[in-house]
Amino acid sequence: MAATTDSIPTARIELLRFGRLMARELKPKGKLLTPFNVISGTIILLGAVLLTIRFTEGLGSITNHSQHHPWGLWIGINVMTGVALAGGAYILTFMVYILRLERYRPIIRVTVLNGFLASVFYAGALFFDLGRPWNVVNPIMGNSFGVSSVLFLVAWLFVLYMAAKLIEFSPAVAEWLGLERVRRRLHALTLGAVVLGITLATLHQSALGALFLMARTKVHPLWYSEFIPLLFFVSSIFAGLSMVIFEGSVSRKVFRHRIGRELQSSHEGILVGLARISSAAMFVYLCLLVLVFVHGQDWPYVGTRMGAWYLLEVVGFVMVPAALFLHGCRGGNVKLIRVAAVMALAGVLLNRLNVSIIAFKWYAPERFVPTWMEIEVTLALVCAQLWVFRWVVNRMPVLDFATEPASRKRVPAQRAAVALHRELEPWKVLVQ
After folding, report:
1. Closest by alpha carbon to 300, among 354, 220, 214, 215?
2. Is 219 helix (H, G, I), strand (E, B) or coil?
3. Given phi > 0 = left and psi -120 to 50 = alpha, else beta, which region is 226?
4. What is the pLDDT of residues 61-100, one digit of tens each?
5. DSSP bridge pairs for 219
6. The model's pTM
7. Please, what's the largest Cα pairwise distance for the chain?
8. Which helix (H) or strand (E) holds 171?
9. Which residue has better confidence, 4 or 100?
């Protein structure tokens, strides 16, 4: 009974400590009325109002969705593109934890954080697009299991992948809370979560492409292929790495006070290495596109308007950035690498929009055009993710964690040495 009685005050003390910590950490750090905060905050508030209207009055109140065009901008950008841009998490964890490429370890946590937040926000965006969002729990709870449906597969992959990313990032949360014992236990689960996350990522990246396999007569032949799941998977590799390059370049300026020495000194080398991998992935993707094009005998479509649009995507946003990545790697030109990363991101966005919207029912007399409210909600979702990302990076050991394990080992020894030095100080005076 004594142990049980003692645990009650201890639990209360821990709850009080946690409450004080959260009250302190929830306070904004820095200026509140900055241009970014004012603009993004206004976008988020307006998005919340529009979503309230959407959930109270239906999809048709703020979107141009219809029975002929049930999928719009929220699927094309929030889900299709957003999940592809989050691919850097499973690639970096594979490189660091499986291949043991330690040079990339300084960016592993920020990449996992970005992948986790992207999965949460963009998979959560499915709620916006569902006519009956309360039925989203059906695949998870077992009600109306659609085991033969690709959407059933995607739903489970999203849920499990988010859980794996949360486990991978959880040691940083434990460090922030000062729970060393919990951190060690969570760290022991990291490798298993990494293996699970990599497996799930390869599946859900390709499963998004598999959704369009059943739309053979609806997707333009230049974008439709039996290999579209493979194309989605390969494109997620350079899309994710390009996002890591872009996000790392921005974070270095915005969060320079949070970046550790190891990441500060190795930043450019990391970008060059990522660009080299991105270039290789883009050339593989380009070869696959050529094989699919030749195999499908799509030559007659090249001279059409859709053919010109297809060439713009392939040449302008695949071939050109791949060449820029390669040239930037050889010369160590970081600026050129950043330009190539932005172009690659634009190319992936264009590809996903082509597959899901532009080249989808291209023959229909009525084309889908998103309303300004759909665009605003998408921007609000991105801004909300940026706010959460900034809050976490400013408080948790994300960008400077590489020095943490070593410092945890050195700090106790340093403290002991200082204490010993103080104790021996009088004896040193006597000896002198």
Report:
1. 220
2. strand
3. alpha
4. 999 888 777 788 888 898 899 989 999 999 999 999 999 9
5. 360
6. 0.85
7. 98
8. helix 150-177
9. 100
Candidates 57, 84, 134, 78; CA nearest to 374 is 78
Q: Left, alpha or beta for 368 (phi > 0: left; psi -120 to 50: alpha)? A: beta
Backbone torsions φ then ψ of 396, nearest 5 degrees: -105, 155
H or E element: which one contains 190? helix 190-210
CA 414 to chain centre: 38
**Residue 410 is encoded by which pair of tokens?**
């050195």
Q: CA-CA distance, 292 to 174, in Å (whole number)? A: 48
279 vs 318: CA distance, rounded Å: 10
Q: Do the Cβ atoms of 231 and 225 come closer than 8 Å?
A: yes
Classify residue 283 as exposed, middle or buried by CB count within 10 Å of its CB (0-12, 13-18, 19+): middle
| Burial of 200 (C-beta count, 10 Å sphere; 0-12/13-18/19+) | buried
Euclidean distance between CA atoms 228 and 205, whole angstroms: 11
Residue with tokens 């959560």, as numbered in its chain: 124
The span from the CA of 229 to the CA of 243, in Å, is: 21
Note the pLDDT tens digit of each residue in 151-180: 787 888 888 899 999 999 999 999 988 888
The identity of residue 98, as a single letter, is I
Give CA–CA dist 344/347, Å, rounded.
Answer: 5
Length of the chain: 432
